Automatic annotation (TrEMBL):
It is found in: Endoplasmic reticulum membrane. It is a single-pass type II membrane protein. The chain crosses the membrane at residues 20-37. InterPro entries: LexA/Signal_pep-like_sf, Peptidase_S26, Peptidase_S26B. This is Signal peptidase complex catalytic subunit SEC11.
């Protein structure tokens, strides 16, 4: 019996264009959702990940936290995310003390991690003893537990990140009949 060879069909241009448009639509949708969150929460970073776990038992390492920066005043007990000079990763801490300035009625905040014994003054920039309102990215409003544990694993073990990228690349470029 003769062997019949079949040739693979050349890639259809319409199919390729449709695939590219679907990817572009997905990327634009994600960008629109992100920009919407930026505007709705008035925060430069409406969503952050708890990398360190110093807020146990309130939050655990790997939790995704959604922030809101629309609140004009911050009270003792609020959990805030803030930036410190010369640090790239924002810190998530509870406000434990508020100092009101008589001169302009602005507030300064002292923070502390729930599982820490002392306040965060040792983590602030050199010569800084309080956090100002402009340093605060937002107040934690919603917590999604353990939603970003994969991100933390990939940061802790870079080999996992390389394997994940390789698997995604192989699946993306594998031809389907």
């Amino acid at each position: 019996m003769p062997v019949i060879q079949t040739k693979k069909r050349p890639t259809n241009n319409r199919s390729l264009i449709r695939q590219c448009l679907n990817v572009c639509t997905m990327l634009i949708s994600v960008l629109m959702i992100w920009k919407g969150l930026l505007g709705w929460t008035a925060s430069s970073s409406p969503m952050i990940i708890d990398y360190f776990g110093v807020m146990d038992p309130a939050f655990h390492r790997g939790d995704v936290l959604f922030l809101d920066n629309n609140k004009p005043t911050i009270d003792i007990g609020d959990i805030v995310a803030f930036t410190v000079k010369d640090r790239s990763i924002p810190l998530i801490r509870r406000v434990v003390e508020i100092h009101r300035l008589q001169s302009d009625q602005s507030s300064l905040y002292l923070t502390k991690g729930d599982s820490n014994v002392v306040s965060d003054r040792g983590l602030y920039a050199k010569g800084q003893f309080w956090i100002e309102r402009r340093d605060i990215i937002g107040v934690v409003r919603v917590v999604v537990p353990h939603a970003s544990f994969a991100t933390i694993l990939m940061n802790d073990y870079p080999v996992l990140k390389a394997v994940a990228i390789a698997i995604i690349a192989i699946r993306a470029f594998r031809r389907r009949p």
